Structures are given as structure tokens and as C-alpha cells.
Amino acid sequence: MLLQSMTNRQPPAGVTSARLSDIALNRVHDAVYLIDSQLRIRYVNDKACQMTGYSRQEMATLPFSTIEHELRDSDVVTLWWKLSMRPEGITFTSQHTDSRGELFPVEISASAYDNQGEVQILSVVHDVRELRQQKEQQRLREKQMQRVVENSPDLIARFDLQMRCIYANPAVRSCFGLNEQDIQQALTDSVPRGEVGLSFFKLVSQTLVSESDSEDEVRIDRHGETRVVNVRCVAEYDLRGNITSVLAVGRDITAIRQAGQEMRAAHQQLRLLTRNQELAREAERKQLARDIHDELGQHLTSLRTGLSLLSIRADEGSAVIQSQLANLTQLVDSTIQVVRDVSTRLRPNVLNLGLIPSLEWLRDQFMKNGGCRCILVAPDEHSVQLDEASLTAAFRVVQESLTNAARHASASNIYIIVKPQPERLEIEVVDNGKGFNIHRVHKNAFGLLGIQERGRMLDGEVTITSEAGKGTRVKLTFPLSSKTPTSGESKKDK
Fold first, then answer.
1. Global pTM?
2. Average pLDDT for residues 272-276, to the nearest whole number?
3. pLDDT bucket at 278, cuts 50 / 70 / 90
4. Do the beta carbons of residue 106 and residue 99 sit within 8 Å?
5. What is the DSSP secondary structure assignment for residue 14, as one 8-state letter?
6. In what order do the strands lie in the sheet with 90-97?
């Protein structure tokens, strides 16, 4: 009826109705034929000429049966004409012949058309070669995808809305020991009972209900071996957006999990090694500091005493000897101070007095050596008692934090805050310096790594928070041993 509606419109002045129809029909992507009762072609558009290779002049001399072979049979022509006269017309598939005699598939829609009192048939012909090529390509892609799925090591299965397994690739059948008949069952019957079946049921049902992806890890015992499979379920939809099935894809990640466990074990061994090395180093420092302080210091003290006695007994008139003795005495005094400094750097003797006195001494030394204002906020020194290893590690964390602040923070105030809790101890070092972006710390910044590792040595943790222009906070938290007295017990003992 397209042509009739176009010809019934009032054309502009100087433009005929036939001319308008021809212009309009030449813009149609399908071939258009107007056929009379003698199968003569009364009209064709340009698309029909392009499709068949005939010109319009040639078309005018050809019967339509030259192009449509089925119409060479009079019975077929009668039936075609009768069906085309129906209000809804007729649509069917056939093959047309082009000017070279080659056949190509088409889809024909034919309907009656009243052309100035003469009943004719308007045939709209759609070339389906491209569509068939697309379908063939689609089938080829599906076949290739099917080959990929069939040979995939991943477990791939599809479930319908009744949770029946409508497809399972060979990997699924091999994993669960199922055959084709076993697969065509409900999910609860086609997978092993128990925890594995329940996990699969939960994932598929969750996807069906929420229409969103679901994912979990499932442990499968097969042939005396436990495999870890990561299962992901996704909803599949039709063209109207209705869910039609659930696709489940499982990937064996046993090797990944084993590698992760081995890596964690290696990290744990490395931490233990680091802890033992740190303890051994602290013990060596302690012993070396004791040897330097006790033996070398004692020898230097004796040497100075001897020089003092020689200075008293020397001839008062010998200015040269007096000068040499004075120089030697000054050299010995300097050496004694160096010994004391080295001993203190190795391990301050104040650590023997406990945590709070040690932090007080560290605060005083920090400000004495040119650091900024440092304030210690801590309870009574008897309220915190630690074993030697914990005391040394906590002291080193605060010491390293102060060193970092002095080097990089440009702060005016630093607070050392000690907070004893019933079962743990918290120590914070807070500065008001320029801060830094913790996500952009240089990978070779071993000072921060050392601080965090000491926290792990104490079975605790160190958290470092900082922001540009807002200072830095280093917080050490570690558990107290059962023998460590609380504040209340400490005061009661006193």
C-alpha cells in the first residue's frame, strides 16, 4: 500500500504523481516491482535493477517469471495471485535470478494494489544474502566459541530458571564424574551433596533472585585431593531483558592458593629471621656497650688517675713535663667521653631503668642535640613494666620516629604519648611538621619499614598517618604480657 498512499497525495505544481512515487521508491533499500495479471513488470525501482543487473528498459520487456522461476508454473501463479489479494498479502522466501543467470536468496512480500482501476501486485523483494552471511558468520562464531568452551580447562555450566543444568562442558563432567544423562537433572541432583552442592545452590539461586553476579570459592574433594575453585555466576537475558538462565564459570585456583600460603609462610619465616637477627644485634650491642663501658672505660679511668698522680709528683720547675701531662690528661678525658658516647649509642644504660625513664632521657637528648620542643605525656614510671626485648623494641620505634621527624618534618612541637591499656600498650609520636604523602614514599625508605617491622616483632602493629601540611602520627600498639602489672596494681604495690 506504500505506492498507493504516495500516489494519492496531492503533488506540488509541475510535479506529477508518478514522478513523486518514483523518487520515493528509489530511496527504499528493497527492490520494488509492480506486476499485472499477465506477470508483466509495470514498474521497478533502481534497487531492483541493481539487484538483478537488468536495466529498466530490459525489465519492461521481461515477464516477472524470468526473475522468479516459481511463477513459471500456472498453478503457482494462480495461488500466488490469490494469496496476494488477501488484505494481509503474503510473505515467503524464494530465489531470484539475476542477468547472469545466478541465483540469490530473497524474501518477497506481495500485496494487491489498485492502479487506476486495474488490480496489480506490488512486490517488495529483500535481498537476504547479507543476512544469510551474517547468520553463517554467527554460526561460525558460535561453533568456534563452542570449541573453546569444550576445550577450556575452566568449569562452565548453564542452569535454567528451574535450576536444571542444561549444559556442562567436559571439565565439569570430569571434575564431578558425571555423564551426559547425569547432567540433565536439577542442580541439587547433579552436583555432590553436602557443602559443595550447597555452595553451588546458593550461588545460582542468589543470581536468579538478585539478577546480579555472585562469586565465591568452593573446595572440592576429588580422588583424595582437595581443589579450590573460584566460581562466578552471571545472569543471561533475552532481547526483552528477561533473565533466561545462569552461566556458572569455575576456575581452579588451587595452585594460586598454595603459592599464597607458601609466600605467607616464607614471609613469616623472614619475619622470624629478622626478629632473631634484631634480638641478636641488640644483645651484641648490649654486650659491646658493657665491655666498652666496663673494661675500656675502667682502663681509661685508671690511666687518667695515674696521669694526675704524675702531674702532682712532677718537678714543679719542669714546665715542659707539666704541659705534656696536661695534654695527655685532656686526651684521656676526651677518649673517656667518646667511649661513653659510643656506649650510649649502642645501648643507653637508662634502658635498665624502664620504659618511662628511657623515654624521658630520649626526650632530653633530642632537645639537647638541637631538636625542636619535645613533650612526653606518660603515666607513672612504675605503671609500665616490659621485658627487655619489648622495652628495647618500643624504645627503638620512638627513637627512629624522632630521628625521622628531625630530618624531614621541620616541626616545632613533637609529642610522645604513652597510653597503657588493660591488655595492650599504645605509644604515639605526633609532630606538627609538614607531613608527607604516605602513598608516595620512596621504596628505599627503610626507616619506616624498620619501624613497622619492630611493631610486628612485638606481635603488634605500627600505623603511620600523615598528610601534607598536617603533620605525622606514628602509633605503636602491642599486647602486654600477662605478667605486666596494670596501673592499679602498680600503685597498690607502691
1. 0.43
2. 66
3. low
4. no
5. T
6. 41-44, 31-35, 118-127, 103-115, 90-97
